[in-house]
Amino acid sequence: MKSRKTTYEERIEIVEHVINHPLSYKDAAEKFKVSYNNVYSWTQKYKKFGPKALEDNRGKKKPSEAQTSEEQLRTEIEALRVRNQWLEMENETLKKQEEMERELIKQEFAKQRRTKRSKR
């Protein structure tokens, strides 16, 4: 069955109905016209993290309290990897800038030497 869009309140109602009544996930899915997978997933999230876990956070990061320690470590590693990449790029840019400045100074010095020689 293709699932329909549900609101946060509907998801809470469905999960509480499954928990408080002797309904299987399949029966609840048929009764509320949503997919079995959604009912199962919502119920597991609700039992593990409470009602806040049923909010629709697509496109947003999971709050850290809703992440497992492994997910938190992966998130931290990814953030560090991105920061490291940024710092490496910044370092390369600064090295190129310093090299260009040295080259410019060298050119100006050579130009001054040439003009001093020509004045003699």
What does this structure look like?
- With 120 residues, this protein is an all-alpha fold.
- The chain has 4 helices and no strands.
- Helix 1 packs across helix 3 (36-49) and helix 2 crosses helix 3 (36-49).
- The N and C termini lie far apart (94 Å).
- The mean pLDDT is 85.
Q: In terms of structural class, how would the helical and strand content be classed?
A: mainly alpha
| Gyration radius, rounded | 31 Å
Number of helices: 4
What would the average pLDDT be, to the nearest integer?
85
**Per DSSP, what share of the residues sits in E-state strands of 2 or more residues?**
under 5%
* Shape designation: rod-shaped
Helix content: over 70%
Give the termini separation: 94 Å
| Main sheet makeup | none
SSE topology:
Blueprint: H1 8-20, H2 25-32, H3 36-49, H4 69-119
Helix pairs in contact: 1-3, 2-3
Defining key terms:
single chain, 72% helix, 0% strand, mainly alpha, 120 residues
Please provide a brief summary of the model.
The chain is mostly helical and 120 residues long. It has helices spanning 8-20, 25-32, 36-49, 69-119.
